Amino acid sequence: MNEITEESVDDAALDWFLQMQEPEIGGEKRENFEYWLSQSKQHQEAYQKLQDLSFDFDLLSISTQGQALRHASHPHKRRGWLFSIAAASVLLAICSFLFVNQYPDITQLSTRKGEILDHTLSDGSILSITPRSQLNIQFSNNQRLVELKQGHVFFNVKQNYEQPFVVKSDTFDVQVTGTIFSVKKFNDNWIVNVAEGAVDIIKKDSVDQNNKQLSLTAGQEIKLNSSSPLGEPILTSINEYENWKKGILIYNNMPFAEIIEDLKRYHHKNIAVAHRDIGETRLSLTVNILAMEQLPELIADILPVTVLRDQYNNIVFTRKSHSQ
Predict the structure, then answer these.
(1) If 0-12 CB within 10 Å is exposed, 13-18 middle and 19+ buried, where does residue 151 land?
(2) Residue 144: what pLDDT?
């Protein structure tokens, strides 16, 4: 029988971590990953170490080193990978420190799992930052600029026509002069929701240099993807900002896997969906952040799933058998 060593668990965690950073992850691969993660506390702790390093020091920006580690042909070449990543992360942190000090008008903000942060900018605008979010802020004489790297942020922007407020990425700009709106960014997907006022969505086309633009007004929402053309906004009766301030999360006709992925940012335990067909099931759900412990049973009343918990109270949703 093969002995499961700490080194082999670390190697497996690294392999899974790198695979989860790929732009497109197949359903079968995700199922296999969730199954591996649910097998033991050792797996979860090893993977969590990598997530913490990635989030704290933006490990994805050194993906060249990560790919080299992933494709190493000899297992001994990857011994001590955690120390290598930690060293690279420290170096990256030093570079970030020097960069920020060279350009002191840049503010970096981030939140951890379960953490919510309200931050007031120098112009009086208020940012409500949800868990596991990361952003950079830079003000100039003619622009207020936010680069949202990941997560979900609510913006209550003070009006200033001389200094537009822009939330940007490589592909999209969301521009306002003063309004209340939110931007959610995970992987390559964006969701923009407007509570008050209006925003302009600008998609930058690197091929024909012909930027495309549309406007959103209060009560409208749009889903964006860098590989897709600008779609049409949809009307929504949900005031996402007001509900979120009350601790209420509302999901409307979304795939179950996407809902769980978002809720994991608020829940202190790991949550996994064991089967692809369950994850693809669409549903509407209202969740009270203060009652997250009741979430598994709430979902079990809606979907044909069984809730499994391990000794550490981590949660796995599996397909309910016909005998149940």
Answers:
(1) buried
(2) 93
- Angstrom CA distances, 9 to 5, 147, 271, stand at 6, 35, 20
What single DSSP character describes residue 321? P
Host H or E run for residue 120: strand 117-120
For residues 67 and 57, give the distance between their C-alpha atoms in angstroms, rounded to a whole number.
17
* 324 within domain boundaries: no
- Give the CATH number of the domain where residue 308 resides: 3.55.50.30
User: DSSP assignment, residue 116?
Assistant: -
Which amino acid does the sequence have at 165?
F
- Max Cα distance, the chain (Å): 70
User: Mind listing the pLDDT tens digit for each residue in 78-100?
Assistant: 445 455 555 555 555 555 555 54
Distance from first CA to last CA of the chain, Å, rounded?
A: 35
149 and 206 both lie in a single domain:
yes
Domain coverage including residue 252: 247-319
Which pLDDT score, from 0 to 100, does residue 216 have? 92
Residue 111 CA to its chain's centroid (Å): 11
Kindly state whether residue 312 falls inside one of the protein's structural domains: yes
> Any idea what the CATH number is for the domain that residue 185 is in?
2.60.120.1440
Q: Give the dihedral sign, CA 94/97/102/108.
A: positive
H/E stretch holding 52: helix 41-57
**Count of domains in the chain?**
3
Q: Please indicate, yes or no, whether the overall pTM of this predicted structure exceeds 0.85.
A: no
Q: Are strands 315-319 and 305-309 parallel, antiparallel or unpaired?
A: antiparallel
The pair phi, psi for residue 220, each rounded to 5°, is -110, 155
